[in-house]
Amino acid sequence: MVQAQSAVEKTKAAVNGSKELVSIESKIHSDIQASLGELKKALPAHLSAERMSRLAMTTLKRNPKLYQCNPLTFLGALFQAAQLGLEIDVDGQCYILPFWDN
């Protein structure tokens, strides 16, 4: 849990410090690639960090409304699924769905 929190904190700092808009796909891909070591430590043996990265990209492509979400909330959901050893959008294990603040 601490490792996932540190990855989310790094992402938050990067988003707050950045003046330009970054697409959620490139942000998630770069964050996952940057924290593959930490993600590997948080994942159970049956699930690789590379697979979670591919599942995240597939999930974004299947549900385009996720592109409108805050990248931090998407990453938080992704890391939570990883810690639980769940694959997103695979056999109904778990899903990441957009919810709006209104």
Describe the structure.
It contains 5 helices and no strands. α1 runs antiparallel to α5 and α2 runs antiparallel to α4. The protein is globular. With 102 residues, the protein is mainly alpha-helical. Helix content is 61%, strand content 0%. Mean pLDDT is 76; it is low at 17-21. The protein has helices at 2-17, 24-34, 36-42, 49-62, 71-84.
Q: What keywords describe this structure?
A:
102 residues; globular; mainly alpha
Bulk shape = globular
Which structural class best describes the helix and strand composition? mainly alpha
Question: Helix segment count?
Answer: 5
Q: Could you spell the SSE succession in H and E letters?
A: HHHHH
Share of residues in strands = under 5%
Helicity range? 55-70%
Which regions have little confidence, pLDDT < 50, spanning 5+ residues? 17-21
Q: Which radius of gyration do the C-alpha atoms yield?
A: 13 Å
First and last CA, distance: 29 Å
Number of strands: 0
Let me know the average pLDDT.
Answer: 76
Largest sheet report: none
